Every structure is written in structure tokens, then in C-alpha cells.
Amino acid sequence: MSGLSAMGTFLLLGWLLTYSSYGIDFTDESFYLVWIADPFIYDVSATQFGFIYHPLYVLLGGDISALRQANIVLTFGLGWGLAYTLLSSLAPEVREARIALHTTAAGLATSTLILFNTWLPTPSYNSLGFQALLITSIGLLLADKAFTFRSVGGWIIIAIGGWLAFMAKPSTAGALAVVVFLCLLASRKLSARLISFSLATVLGLLLLSALIIDGSLLGFAKRLLLSVDFAHLIGSGHTADQILRIDSFRLRTPSKLAILFVAVVTFFAIRTAQSAKPGPALVSLGLSVFFLSITALLVTGQIHKTAGLGQFEGLLTFGLVLAAVLTALFSEAPAPWRSISAPQWAMAIIFTVMPHIYAFGTNRNYWENGAWVGIFWLLAGLTLLGPVVRARMSWSFVQPLVLATQAVTAILLQTGLEQPQRQPQPLRLNQTTVEIGPERSSLILSSGYASYINDALATVQNGGFRLGTPVIDLSGQSPGILYAIGAKSVGLAWIIGGYPGSLQLARAALDRVPCEEIAKAWVLLEPDGPRRIPTELMASLGSAFPEKYQQIGAWRTAEGAGGYDVSRVQELYQPTAPADTLRVCQTLRQSVTK
């Protein structure tokens, strides 16, 4: 059945890579693009993913589709590496054919693609945080007290993973550090010399990052401290007292039935695969083909309906975990629980909590957010199968679990492709090709989104707008249109509106922008926008708006843009008296410093 799982892996990867040129979200995903394209122009940021991915952006020439494909392949590749390392460590005495073991690991790794089930495939702090946890987990499996090449490599990998976690999201990095230490302690892997070496590596990477990003450690620390102040200003739920919480989840009846169905059918398929009799083996093969058929039907577009399991549909992965646990409980291996070593128990526990480490710090529900990295729950369940594998001297009986994993992944990805976040229609219906951004990257969009972008491009081209022109975005939700026309977003990569402190945040960010740039910046306005920033902001910057600005044009947003069904008017203004704005801005700032 290895051939079936290999087929499922290729189908899923090809599916996502094909759709990498489809769709765009004008809010969150566009913020990722703005931040990655030129992260060095901003001096405040809680997450540094823009600096990590910027070289990749440059290498790929700003091609959005290629950037997404690289993110998908990198995430899958790291999941593959982790799954293979785990399978090898659980039963090192099993002489499974290397190709078969890699096929199994690759099939399990397709579950990493669940990360994209809201269809935000552009690299971000979410993908970097996930990749950091995958890397750290590989390091934990390789690290040991012994001073060997493999062990030292593991400790270095742990350090790299910890550094990347910090660059993605400091809250995740802090939680990861505590859990990693406890895991190493429980595994009896702690070595003063090696942990000191690993810590030195992390500090060295952080110091190097600080020097590259801000030129000094002090400058980098100031960047982080200011980001904390900004988080308090906006009131978006990212402060320390708000992230230290215990979330719950409530599954609807269809979700419970779906999880139970996956668990029972997968368990039955595994159990029949363990039989030496031809009858049960044929049943297992039939169920495996059933799982592959689900994947194939979804990938080839024969089914367009989504699962409709609601907010916590990502927890469908629990069905796979339950099937693995049931297999271990009802195995014929002698004393299976006692033959699991302390390091393996420690890894099972850390895999269980990894999704919450990933989610820690977000303002979303931790269970909902953590389900995006449900591969860790799956690997925790798989760890319990180690004794069964050693007793049978083969991993072949888990192939039905692999194929079920691919089917669940396809079901969850279907939601993202049919209901992409803040987009008006399924990606398969997009037919209009548009070139956007400073690098003129091609994307296939809905006709409404294409018209929105083309109208904005026509307006700025007729108005004498040049690439790299600074723009103050008062719409509160349009980093995407700024990226599309090649503007420089002033102050922040996204001056986000709609929060209690949005105006205060915008003022604090723009107060850090030189008056020379404020004076020559154009202004994007959305008069009736639900997330607009009040125009009173301009007066606090020394700008008389709209008296000393000229409207060069207007266009309508697309229905669905920003998650709102109603189309709205956006207006672009050019400064007509930059010298006056410069003088007033400088006077205001001098009076503040006195």
C-alpha cells in the first residue's frame, strides 16, 4: 500500500502548488507581503518573519506564486523530515526498506498542509512559527547526552528552532523554551556542556539578527519594547494578561460523528491490515482505496462541497489520533505501555502540547489555532505504536492510517480552497489574471478583485504616481491595494483599523516617521469604510487634510474585500503643499521635545 500513499502525497502537493497562483487576501496576507518585501523600513515589530523570508522574496524575484510554493514545500519537507526521524527512532531495529519508510513519513507529513486550510499560503509568522517547531522537534529526537556528531547536530538544530520561534513570535519561543527544558530533563538528556553550547548558539544567532536588523543589540531591544507598547495601545488582545488563558472548544454533533467515523474506520483498517489472512487484508486494502478515493475526488474537483464542520473542524485530526491509540491498546505486543522508553514518553507529551505552544500568544481560540499544526497530535499518537512496530518488525500496517491522514487533510484543505479567507468565491472559479506589486507578479483572481486592482492601477498611473511613493493608509484595511500599486506603506506595514486603539497606534507609528516623508506622502482614504482611521490623525502630524491635498482619483473596492460584502469608495490624495506640511510637522515635534 506504499504506492497508494505515495500517490496521495503527490496529489495533495500538486493540488496546493497548482493553486498557489490563485487568489489573494487584501488584509492579513497582503500585510505579510508588504512586510517581507521591504522589512528594513520599519523600526517597530513584534514578529521578525519579514527579515527571515526577505532573502527568499528577493531570490524569487518577488513572484508571489513562487513564494507560496516555496512556503508549502518547505513546510512539507520539514514535516517529512520530522516524521522520518520519529519513525526511525521509535523502532531502530526494524530494517524497513528506506524507500518504504520515507513514503510512510511523506504521507504523514501531508498533514502539515492543514496549515493552509484558510488559504493564507504566503509566508508569515504562522508558517515560520510552525517551521520552527518542526525543526526543534527534529533536534529533540536527535539530541542526547553523548558528545557525538548526531547529538551535537541535534543540539544545534534545537538552537536554530528556538531562534526561529523567537523571530516568529516571542510568546511561542518562551513557551517552547520551558517545554523543551522539561522534555530534556524527563528524557535524561540534559548535559551542562551541550545545553550551554546550544544556548550560546541561540544567543549568537539572536545577536547576529540584531546587528543585521537594527545595527545593535540596543536597537533591536528597543524595537521589541516598542512593539509591546504598541500592543497595549491598539487593544487587540495580545497583551500578557490576555494571552495567559485556558480556552475551551465545543464540537457540534456533525463534528463529533465525523471524528468518531474517522477513528472507527481507520482503526478497523489498521487491525485488518495486521492480519495474515487474505480476507481481512482485502478489507484493509478496500478501506485504504476508499481513503485514497476521497483524496483523489477532492483534488480533481469532483467534489465541491465542504465538510461544514464549523469553527473547530481542524480537530477532525483527533479521529486519527484516537485510531492510533486504539491500535496500541488492542495490540498483541507484550506490555506495550511499559516498553515505551522515557524519552519516547517525553516526546509524546511534547507533541501533545506543541499545538498550544504554536497558538500561545494569539487572540484566536487556542484549540482552533493549534489545529492548524495537528501533525503534532498525530505524531504523539504514533509514538504509542512503537512497541507494536517492534513486535511486528514492520511499519507496513500503518499505511491505512497514512491514507486516512491524507483524506482528512484533503477534507480540511477543501474548506480553504472553496471558502478562502476574505475572498468572494472558491478559487476554482477565479479566471482573471492580474499583475500586481512592484515586481508585477501574476495572480488569478475573481473578476471583482481584478477590477478593483486594475481600477486602482489605472488611477495612479494617470495621476503620476511612481513606484515606491509613500502613502498613509487611512482605510485601515488595505495593505493589499498599497502593495498592488507599488506604494510604500508609511509608518507600519499595515496601519490596522477597527480596534479601540487604532487611532492611537497610527499616531504613535507615524510620529516615528521623518517629517520629510510625512510631507511628501500621499493619502488613501475610505470615507465610509468600517475600519477607517479618522482623518483627525493628519492634523496631529502637521498636515492640513484635505485642504492642502488634491484628489487624483477614486475607485470602488471589490465585494468581499477585507471580509465585507458591500463595495466601498476609496480615494487617493496627492499633497499640494509639502513644504507647509514639513514646516508644521517639524514645529510640532520640536514643541513636544522641549
Describe it.
The protein is mostly helical. It folds into two domains: 417 residues, no CATH class; 148 residues, no CATH class. The protein has 25 helices and seven strands. The strands form two sheets. Strands 4-3-5-7-6 form a five-stranded mixed β-sheet. Helix 4 crosses helix 5 and helix 12 crosses helix 13. The longest helix is centred in the N-terminal third of the chain and has 27 residues. The radius of gyration is 26 Å and the shape is globular. The model has no long low-confidence stretch (mean pLDDT 92).
Number of domains: 2
N- and C-termini, Cα separation: 76 Å
> What is the gyration radius calculated from CA atoms?
26 Å
Structural class based on helices, strands and sheet pairing: mainly alpha
Shape by Cα distribution: globular
Helix content: 55-70%
How many beta-strand segments?
7
Quaternary: single chain
Beta-strand content bin: 5-15%
- The number of helical elements comes to 25
Chain-averaged pLDDT:
92
Uncertain segments: none
Q: Major β-sheet, in short?
A: 5 strands, mixed
Strand order of the largest sheet: 4-3-5-7-6
Task: Sum up the structure in keywords.
6% strand, two-stranded antiparallel ribbon, five-stranded mixed β-sheet, mainly alpha, 594 residues, 7 strands
SSE blueprint and pairings:
Elements: H1 2-18, H2 28-37, H3 49-59, H4 64-90, H5 98-109, H6 125-142, H7 149-168, H8 170-186, H9 192-214, H10 217-234, H11 240-243, H12 253-273, H13 278-299, H14 317-329, H15 342-359, H16 366-370, H17 375-383, H18 386-392, H19 399-418, E1 432-436, E2 441-445, H20 447-462, E3 470-473, H21 479-485, E4 488-489, H22 502-510, H23 515-520, E5 522-525, H24 536-540, E6 549-556, E7 569-575, H25 578-593
Parallel strand pairs: 3-4, 3-5
Antiparallel strand pairs: 1-2, 5-7, 6-7
